[in-house]
Design brief:
The complex is a heterodimer of chains A (225) and B (211).
Chain A: H1 28-41, H2 48-56, H3 60-64, H4 68-82, H5 90-95, H6 116-121, E1 141-144, E2 163-173, H7 176-179, E3 188-196, H8 197-201, E4 210-216, E5 220-222
Helix pairs in contact in A: 1-4, 2-4
Chain B: H1 3-14, H2 20-34, H3 40-53, H4 56-68, H5 70-78, H6 80-86, E1 96-101, E2 106-111, H7 120-123, H8 128-131, H9 133-141, H10 143-149, E3 159-164, E4 169-174, H11 186-192, H12 195-199
Parallel strand pairs in B: 1-4, 2-3
Helix pairs in contact in B: 4-5, 4-11, 5-6, 9-10
The chains are: A alpha+beta (225), B mainly alpha (211).
Chain lengths: 225, 211
């Protein structure tokens, strides 16, 4: 979706301000929101792409006016409602002080404290052991598709309809533009594609500079087609 | 954007011990615990893991090893995932790690314009500036401007290469080893390596140098 999350190339946000000796979390609620999001993710009711899409659906003005973990909180609350784990008004009712009886969830795959280290060490989630042929070789000249889906996509606006060169083949991965929209894994090759800065930003950009962006087969066509 | 700070001031102004967002998180946690969907002890372990165990010291050890051990450096650049696993760093948000080397002719820097993807296993959780709109907006269109503001001047005849890590592949920069560190131990070298250098928005400065 062409949302406020797709920030690459925008102007007017001001300088990048690095905080010295920054703590990992600034408030206790950030700790809890972070951990709640990870723990709820292990329930297995959504995947990481659906999770990202949920955050992207925060209204744009709200997205730009709130912090990272507020985006996470918005996404988590939406996912819990969308999957029926929490009833539409249940969280708001609790915030108003209501103490309606809670129906315990049954059959949920709950993350136990003793399993955290093991599941965090399990790194293979998005890579797929499938024999899918690559559509492009390293060195191939490609052009990105000009797409504007209302759903989830990992092709940022600034790189649509642009010419680039495939520089790395990362192998076969889940395609987020499918899995983030509940359409299955659609496994395919993911590549690092090099775009010259001048191709993206015009003749004023420095001649030597480039952006390397990870894209999938379904984002790309051979150049000249 | 420093909205976290705004919340603190709002809290003080209202005389309330908790901000609206803190109350919302607390309500959500109590609801999920009562439903039996999360175990609060697991939340504590998750927080402790990323607050005290996983962080940029992991990445700094990788960099220092690469600086002192040419064979390790070669393995790291050829297959970052396996090379950092040799030092015990595996896991979430680092399913495939690509390590890119800064040289006098090439300056790499890493961003995720769409959401703030970051190599947790070697750098821990991302800092606020990395997740902020200014960095995500500007890193791809004006990387030299961002670098200049942060005190890094890349000569015009060198390339600035920005890695927009919007897939599940994660990137870490192997910074240039600073001059005057030839006799230093691996541990001492690791202590020089900063998080920002491994994202590619800072250089590693030799001991005693002004930042």
């Amino acid at each position: 979706m062409n949302g406020a999350h797709d920030l690459g190339g925008m102007h007017g946000f001001g300088p990048v301000e690095i905080e010295r000796d920054e703590p990992v979390f600034h408030h206790d609620w950030e700790r809890r929101a972070f951990a709640l999001t990870l723990a709820a993710g292990f329930l297995g009711k959504w995947n990481i792409d659906i999770g990202r899409y949920a955050r992207e659906q925060m209204p744009p003005a709200e997205y730009l006016a709130t912090s990272y973990y507020e985006h996470w909180l918005f996404g988590l609350a939406k996912l819990l409602r969308d999957t029926g784990l929490v009833a539409p008004d249940e969280l708001d009712a609790r915030l108003r002080g209501g103490r309606a009886p809670v129906t315990p969830a049954t059959g949920a795959r709950v993350l136990a404290a003793g399993d955290v280290a093991r599941v965090l060490g399990r790194s293979r989630e998005a890579r797929v052991d499938a024999d899918v042929a690559p559509r492009f070789r390293v060195g191939a000249r490609v052009v990105t598709r000009n797409i504007n889906p209302v759903g989830h996509t990992r092709l940022p606006r600034y790189a649509r309809g642009r010419r680039g060169v495939v520089t790395l083949d990362h192998g076969v991965w889940v395609f987020p533009d499918a899995s983030g929209n509940g359409l299955g894994k659609k496994p395919q090759h993911c590549y690092s594609v090099r775009f010259e800065a001048r191709e993206l930003w015009g003749a004023e950009a420095p001649a030597r500079d480039a952006v390397h962006l990870d894209l999938w087969d379904d984002h790309l066509d051979p150049e000249g087609r | 954007m420093s909205h976290d700070h705004a919340h603190v001031h709002d809290d003080a102004a209202r005389g309330s011990p908790l901000s609206d967002v803190a109350l919302r998180v607390r309500a959500l946690e109590s609801l999920l615990v009562e439903k039996g969907l999360v175990d609060p002890a697991a939340l504590d372990v998750l927080i402790d893991t990323y607050e005290t165990k996983v962080g940029p010291r992991n990445g700094a050890r990788v960099v220092a090893r690469a600086w002192v051990d040419p064979a390790y450096r070669a393995r790291l650049l050829a297959d970052g995932t396996s090379a950092v696993a040799e030092l015990g760093f595996v896991g979430r948000q680092s399913e495939k790690l690509v390590v890119v080397e800064n040289t006098p002719a090439l300056h790499n820097m890493v961003v995720c314009t769409l959401c703030s993807c970051y190599p947790w296993a070697v750098l821990g959780l991302p800092p606020v500036w990395y997740k902020s709109a200014p960095y995500r907006a500007r890193a791809v269109i004006d990387p030299r401007g961002v670098l200049r503001e942060l005190g890094v001047d890349v000569p015009a005849d060198a390339e600035v290469r920005v890695w927009d890590s919007t897939a599940e592949i994660r990137y870490m920069v192997l910074p240039e080893r600073p001059p005057g560190t030839e006799g230093m131990s691996e541990d001492a070298l690791a202590a020089l390596v900063t998080r920002d250098a491994m994202i590619g928005v800072a250089r590693v400065t030799p001991p005693g140098a002004r930042r």
